[in-house]
Amino acid sequence: MNFEPILYPLSGFFMKLSDDAYDRKKNIYLAIIAGILCGSFIGYLAVTSADAACIFIAILIGTVLSLKVDSLNHIAALILFILIVIYIGIPSIGIVTLLICSIAAFLDEVGNDNKLIKNKRVKLFFEYRFTLKIAVLSFALLGLLQSTYPGLKIPGVQYFLLPTFIYFIFFDLFYEIAGLKFNTIYDGLNSIFRVFRKID
Predict the structure, then answer these.
(1) What DSSP letter does each residue of 154-181 carry, written as one string?
(2) Pick from 145, 4, 136: which is nearest to 59 by CA?
(3) Model confidence over 90-122: pLDDT tens digits?
(4) Which of 45, 100, 146, 179 has its CA 20 to 30 A from that of 164?
């Protein structure tokens, strides 16, 4: 069974839930639990799909280089992801594709919430992390082209499947939904699990 259509959205959802639980509510327990779930899901995706491995390792590299791994929930998710990848291993990925996607992820992280950027269109571009989306779409379109022209091969370049881009959009969509509906989600979880207590 293909779990990608389920795990991409869940990964995005729990990634944002973890971030907002820590940043907006200072709830380290919920932040770590959500981070662990996110790390588990993207870890599974990375060891079962070369496309996912390339994308999520690129996001990891971009996040680390931009110094955005700065809280316990981030560290917990990062460690779990790395342990899964090391223990099980990942499919072969293209170094050129990984490099380009890593640069794109880094630019998105640096541009996101950057106070130095004043242009509204540029701010919107980085707010929704379009650099990596464009990179993923480009490699998916190249993959579609390569399926028609099998001889179109470039050393080190990994072509993505077109569904990968769609899954990635769902990842980002559920990331945004978790942010927009965070208070409702948090209040619902808090009413069910009283163990999620705010830490001041």
Answers:
(1) -TT--PPPHHHHHHHHHHHHHHHHHHHT
(2) 136
(3) 999 999 999 999 999 999 999 887 778 888 888
(4) 179
